[in-house]
Amino acid sequence: MVNCMCATELHPPPTRTAGFAYFYSIPVFTVEWLGWLGWIYCVAGLWSTIDRPPRVMSTMMPEKDFPSVDVYIVAYNETVCAAN
Fold it and tell me: pTM higher than 0.85, yes or no?
């Protein structure tokens, strides 16, 4: 006599209580959707740019208040001595 198992014994039905999977999957799913929506908003914002006329800095502030920049030019002029 052959011992036969029915299909429910080979593959038990899935349980309805997922346990930790819900606590893990729902926040991940929410973050994925919010990231996708944020990407859509970013692309929509970059799609329609605002064209503004150029402005001259002297019309915005007096020349004495202009920002200044210090430029350092690094030079290495030391002679190379070989170790004897």
Answer: no
